[in-house]
Write a structure and sequence with these properties.
The protein is α+β, with helices and mostly antiparallel strands and about 90 residues long. It is built from three helices and three strands, in the order βββααα. About 45% of the residues lie in helices and about 25% in strands. The chain is globular.
């Protein structure tokens, strides 16, 4: 299992951390933001394909910011999958 951390930009949460194993997401945690909604996202994506989650959440907008915590998660996953391929 490989752990990743991503500093968000343009949203209320400041950091996203998660683990990747065999292309699946585990232990997703957001620092800051709308905690109830972000805990719900973490429960919904636990054990799911990281690529599938990123594809679903990419481009989600919050209040016209051009991004959201969900979109930032997609960006974090994209970066983690690229890094994971380099490590492998």
């Amino acid at each position: 299992m490989t752990s990743f951390s991503y500093n968000t930009q343009g949203v209320c949460s400041t950091n996203i951390s998660f683990d990747l194993e065999d292309g699946k997401l585990y232990n997703l945690h957001f620092s800051g933001g709308c905690i109830g909604n972000l805990k719900a996202i973490a429960k919904l994506v636990e054990g799911r394909s990281a690529q599938e989650v990123a594809d679903i959440l990419r481009g989600n907008d919050c209040r016209g910011k051009g991004t959201s915590c969900a979109d930032q998660l997609a960006k974090a996953i994209d970066m983690a999958l690229i890094d994971n391929k380099r490590i492998a």
